[in-house]
Amino acid sequence: GKQVDVRGYDLRGGGNFSGACLTMMKGRGAVLYELNFSKAALQRADLREADLRHANFSAADMRGSNLVDAQLSNANLQGAQLQPLSLAAGNLLASDMSGASLRYANLSKANLRHVKFRNADLCEANLRGADLTYADFEGANLDGAQIDPEPGIKK
User: Fold this and answer.
1) Distance (Å) of CA 31 to CA 9, 70, 110, 113, 132
2) Does residue 31 contact residue 53 with C-beta atoms inside 8 Å?
3) How far is the C-alpha of 141 from the C-alpha of 37, rounded, in Å?
4) Model confidence pLDDT, tens digit, residues 81-122
5) What is the C-alpha separation between 130 and 25, in angstroms, rounded?
6) What pTM does this model have?
């Protein structure tokens, strides 16, 4: 199918994308406030600087997505898959949430292996039961975050 391009669009209140195939979606700077992406295929989506506040990404496949500087406050990412996307020849494309605002976001039980959270704001975020193996939290604000100690967390 054709690659979805919503860069810069305001789709607030624009529908339900639950279970949709949005692989490699171009959404830089888009306003996707309160939209439902539960169980959607969003592998390698470009959502840099997007407004994803209160959006529902529960059980979504977001492997290899770029969410640098995205606004994800109060977003639901429960059970989302954000681990690296496996490419040909054994190459991995890690998900990047550097500088993202994830205040009060629900990331419980999400697969966050190797995700970059550098300088991200995770105040009061729920990370209970999430796989944080090799996740990079350098410079991240974790004040009040609900987190289970995991041996693979890189501090």
Assistant:
1) 6, 10, 23, 27, 28
2) no
3) 26
4) 999 988 877 778 899 999 999 999 999 999 999 999 999 999
5) 25
6) 0.88
